[in-house]
User: Fold this.
Amino acid sequence: MEFTIDFTKEQIESIEEILQKELIDLGVQSVILMDLAGNVIVNLDSGESDHDVFSLAALAAGNYGAVSAMANIIGEQEFSLLFHKGEEESIHFSKVVDDLLLLTIFNKNVSLGFLRLKVGEAIKRIQSLI
Amino acid sequence: MALINPKKREVQVKIVYYGPGRGGKTTNLEYINRKFKKRILNEMVTVKTYGDRTLFFDFLPFDIGEIKGHSIKIQLYTVPGQVKYNATRRLVLRGVDGIVFVADSMDLRREMNIRSLQNLKENLEAFNKNMSNIPLVMQYNKRDLSDEGIPILSVDTLEKDLNSQLKAPYFSASAIRGDNVAATMKKIIALTVSSLRKKLE
Assistant:
């Protein structure tokens, strides 16, 4: 079953505000809210990075699907949270609702625990909007 | 379904090149990437195996200007053609707006084309989509092989095998030479975008 959400301008603005306040203002470099078809819904950054967000979203959707298939093999419905650690930058993925993922790119200055906490709060607030 | 962002007035359209393995889907995208380099801002993304076959997908995004005050972002994807990668194909089809079916004209591949089209139909059904009402263009690829004396299927045969019920627009093409690659792409973009027009009004 395919699930797609149509966003209004007001919803997008509210989501942007949440992501700005909860994540970008705290030092996260880049945030992408995307659907599992690989579409970018909201993209914010701190101005320091110049990532190709459309390619990132396409690959992230594929990656999430592949990892979900792995989850099924071991008897899990899905892994709702993924984390890829790099030398300088890392990527954190978290499910928002059925068809939406929140991708966060951050560097060594942000601790993973703190990021997870903030992502959790942002997701709760976004869920209340849609 | 295409994603419409009312704030940025931007539409993201997903077009998938489908078809049997080694049929030329990636070659189509590679040609488009070279030919329209100036309009394509980002690098083409490919996830390949060591044997140079598409493992996951290829991805090529570009802008085609504005329609009804919305900027249109086209995202071209290919699927891995090999039979065993069906889970990945299904993943890539998620949210598809338009499809190019790249059939292999080689005589030997007749059965593979038919099976791949059937597989497309089944995978679309998994997303509650019907192949007969999604924008679709047929491309009969590798027409150049006849110049090398390799037996190929006639366009009539391909039409009868694959397109007798769908009656989709079709092109004879050679992706490796670039013949009708741009025409195929322009046709699927036109069909897909016109099916979206109503939503943009």
In short: Chain B has one domain: 7-200. The interface with chain A takes residues 1, 3-7, 12, 14, 42-43, 45, 47, 56-57, 59, 61, 73, 75, 77, 87-88, 91-92, 94-96, 127-129 of chain B (CB under 8 Å). The beta strands of chain B are 3-5, 10-18, 45-48, 54-67, 70-78, 98-104, 136-141, 170-172.
